[in-house]
Design goal:
Blueprint lengths: L5 E10 L2 E11 L4 E5 L6 H8 L9 E9 L2 E2 L6 H7 E4 L10 H11 L5 H14 L3 H4 L12 H13 L5 E5 L7 H14 L4 E5 L3 H7 L2 E6 L2 E7 H6 L4 H7 L5
Parallel strand pairs: 3-8, 3-9, 6-7, 7-8
Antiparallel strand pairs: 1-2, 1-4, 4-5, 9-10
Helix pairs in contact: 3-4, 3-6, 4-6, 6-7
């Protein structure tokens, strides 16, 4: 039997006493794409931030329970820097660094001690190819990343996370500000990365979760209502609340 990549056990999170997540229990398998859906204030982003310990930066955040990565508790057996190298995040708003396309991708590897120019060039090309961006930028790597379109900037941010060789990639509404063509390219990149990475996609677009996810989890008011294979959850949800959300009765 294959061990899960991520195991969430009795996870509870609150901010200043206001609960954000309640008694979460589930697992994510290696190289699986998990879509996470649910209305606003359902705890989706709090869950992502817990996975790479960004909640550590919020002094009002309190967490109970555990999150295991490869069998190790990320809060008790790993330091935050180690977690964030293994578990990277792509945010809703693409935030390229104010430097060249090349230097955006090389930034992380350089921080981790890689200085050799040839090695950096290899990492940059490999990462941009994996992010479905290489063919569009290979002739202007020295130009500013700020000149890229919104969709290109988001794929640049995906490539930048790949450059540090993570094991898990988190996406927090990565296509919320993109046009349909750019969205399709980001989704293509996510599907292409499935062979090498475990990925968790938070999205308000239920059709996107159906297109991309192997499994889908439905969060509601901080609780996990249902998790299952994407085809099953979208065609025959087990919980009435899931069906009501998917059919537009609320949310």
């Amino acid at each position: 039997m294959v061990d899960p990549k991520i195991v969430v056990k009795d996870l509870n999170i609150d901010y200043g006493g206001a609960p954000a997540l309640k008694d979460m229990n589930f697992s994510v398998m290696d190289k699986e794409i998990l879509g996470v859906i649910g209305p606003a204030n359902s705890g989706k982003t709090s869950f992502l931030r817990a996975l790479n310990r960004l909640n550590d930066l919020d002094l009002g955040c309190r967490m109970k329970g555990s999150i295991l990565l490869n069998g190790k508790d990320i809060n008790r057996e790993m330091d935050a820097e180690e977690v964030r190298k293994k578990v990277t995040m792509v945010f809703a708003l693409p935030i390229p660094l104010p430097m060249s396309i090349f230097d955006n991708i090389a930034y992380g590897p350089r921080r981790h001690g890689i200085k050799d120019k040839k090695k950096l060039e290899e990492i940059v090309e490999k990462s941009l190819r994996a992010g479905y961006l290489w063919d569009e930028v290979k002739d202007r790597l020295t130009s500013s990343a700020m000149k890229l379109s919104g969709g290109q900037q988001q794929r640049l941010c995906i490539a930048r996370t790949l450059a540090v060789e993570p094991e898990v990639i988190l996406y927090d509404e990565p296509c919320s500000g993109l046009d349909p063509i750019s969205t399709a390219k980001v989704e293509d990149a996510i599907r292409e990365l499935k062979s090498r990475y475990t990925q968790i996609l938070v999205t308000n677009n239920v059709k996107q979760a159906a297109r991309v996810g192997d499994k889908v989890a439905f969060f509601l008011m901080g609780e996990l209502v249902e998790i299952g294979e994407a085809n099953q959850l979208f065609t025959a949800p087990k919980d009435k609340r899931t069906n009501d959300y998917l059919t537009g009765r609320f949310g």
